[in-house]
Amino acid sequence: MSEAWLGRCLCGAVHYAARGAVLAQLVCHCRDCQRASGAAGVPVVVVNAADFSFDGAIKAYTKTGGSGMPTTRHFCPECGSLLFGTPHHAPHIVTIYAGTLDDPARFEAEFVQFTGERHRLDAHDAAIPQHAGRAP
């Protein structure tokens, strides 16, 4: 068995673990992910629902997404951290939002989706000044 994928919300009230094989790692740029996260795109780790567990109280919000099917996003009611999703079209999976991983360096995107909805919010242009810490 591979090493567990562990994560938590910003305030630490909710912790999660995925203990099985990863099904996919991707970055999603759909408008729903942008609006839900406030970011240009969301790095996602897809795992089997049977291998996923969490501790702590969560809140959920369900909306019909780009697939035409509802997706439920789960977040911490204390700090608002977006933690994981449960797409209704694939009830056997959980989509972990990789920014909440304890070790985000493990994330390695295999593909990017909804690139037609990617916006200038994605500031990876080498011509834009980059700073390893806070900008001066």
From TrEMBL:
> Which Gene Ontology molecular-function terms are recorded?
carbon-sulfur lyase activity; metal ion binding
Query: Which PROSITE patterns would you find in this protein's record?
Result: CENP_V_GFA
Domain of life where this protein originates: Bacteria
InterPro entries to which the protein is assigned, alphabetical: CENP-V/GFA (IPR006913), Mss4-like_sf (IPR011057)
Q: Keywords assigned by UniProt?
A: Lyase, Metal-binding, Zinc
Q: What region holds the CENP-V/GFA domain?
A: 5-108
Q: Which Pfam families match?
A: GFA
SUPFAM superfamilies to which the protein is assigned, alphabetical: Mss4-like
Family statement: Belongs to the Gfa family.
Q: What is this protein called?
A: GFA family protein
Q: Which organism is it from?
A: Paraburkholderia antibiotica
Q: What is the lineage of its organism?
A: Bacteria, Pseudomonadati, Pseudomonadota, Betaproteobacteria, Burkholderiales
